[in-house]
């Protein structure tokens, strides 16, 4: 089993049966972050892109817990310049072991500037990840993205049973595009994310669920801060 805790916006904590903890896109200062949540252990951090709402706390957490930090090459160089150890950068299409899981970096349609001392610097290209679990199941974490045709290839190659997809619109795809993405990926379940944090992020899970009626894909809206088992 996998314990999934939504930390608001695009941030998640994944806890494996062995106790290992994977954190994706840590943003502890977000307006929807559960203030009573505290990390006790982090083994792996995955970063999808450089925006302020996805990696502002990566440096602090990495220095505190010394996890393996998986990211793009450009973000990796920036993290190392800030004193982060155990950076394991990669690029799209590549795979690597990260603790008990294997991660493959995938494409994403977005941008990836890093806010550093009031300036935005180049953060490489945005990405997503396929996470292969020890029990043989796989997860697709899209990060911030619009729909793209190669999602069909991700579905064919990796066969993710669970997908994490942004639905907020404005900065990412809307529920309409996310519904089509599900048809390309063919997961059993989809967890909506990146919605409701700010006024422009207007997409909501019920809209996605309505669009997916009859497809066999279950929309699984999580409650922020409440662990769920999968």
Unreliably modeled segments:
none
Estimated radius of gyration: 16 Å
Counting DSSP E segments of at least 2 residues, the number of strands comes to 16
In the CATH hierarchy, what is the class? Alpha Beta
Question: Helicity range of the residues?
Answer: 10-25%
Task: Compute the separation of the termini in Å.
Answer: 6 Å
Number of domains: 1
The percent range for strand residues is 25-35%
The averaged pLDDT comes out at 97
Largest sheet, strands/sense/barrel: 7 strands, mixed
Description:
With 230 residues, the protein is of the alpha/beta class. The protein has a single domain (2-223), classed as Ribonuclease Z/Hydroxyacylglutathione hydrolase-like (Metallo-beta-lactamase, Chain A), CATH 3.60.15.10. Helices cover 19% and strands 28% of the residues. The protein has 5 helices and 16 strands. Helix 4 links the parallel strand 13 and strand 14. The protein is globular. It starts with a strand and ends with a strand.
